[in-house]
Protein: Electron transfer flavoprotein subunit beta
Amino acid sequence: MKVLVGVKRVLDYNVKPRVKADGSGVDLANVKMSMNPFDEIAVEEAIRLKDKGVTEIVVVSIGEQKSQETLRTALAMGADRAILVVSEEKVEPLGVAKLLKAIVDEEKPDLVILGKQAIDDDNNQTGQMLAGLLGVGQATFASKVELADGNVTVTREVDGGSETESLKLPAIVTTDLRLNEPRYASLPNIMKAKSKPLAQKTAADYGVDISPRITTLKVVEPAKRSAGIKVADVDELVTKLKAMGVAK
Ligand code: AMP
Structure:
């Protein structure tokens, strides 16, 4: 059984984003980039499914040449093979979904695992669009994934509880934060990953048009929080809260 996992190179989640002076986007020059955290969870889940009948994990990234590093990290975690679709320009979720569809048509995986969202643009669109383009089932926000008898059973995080669904394979699953805790790649596995296959492609190889359809008009930093005040004791705090109408 084959699993395909999408991994995106994004601004590291510990880095405080800075907006470019001209307001055209987030400044990515000289900042730490890492694998999208939800995609680390997706890779981890695919690896854990190796005990449950998964025989091959193919990781795919669409992005600049440097995304090779992200793919090597996934290979060091335990994926078997990687495909990089090189685009030095940003590819919108629809373009990513179309490229993933072309790769799925070629690779014919039984299961595709993506993150629920990439933390750079917070789109939360790619998995849903891919399922639509392929005409297969999707289960988003997975907190538990089980494979059995040609089906995948997914527990999903929903408002105030969880929902369990069974989908016929092939299917698309997107990961939520509580699905698992991704492993760190060990040094020997990082070394081994260097010799695992990594194919390089372009959108033209798949005949997919990735020209942008969305224009970003303006990006602004969040408003600065105004400074707080210090109170001497609890009595003063309660008096102030009453004055504000927050406490009675
Ligand atoms: P998004 O819809 O952009 O929030 O992304 C959702 C998920 O789709 C991510 O967590 C990835 O698994 C996958 N994905 C999005 N963009 C890319 C990309 N450029 N390369 C590989 N996977 C991607």
About this structure: The chain has one domain: 2-244. Residues 71 and 82 are 6 Å apart (CA to CA). The two ends are 62 Å apart (CA to CA).
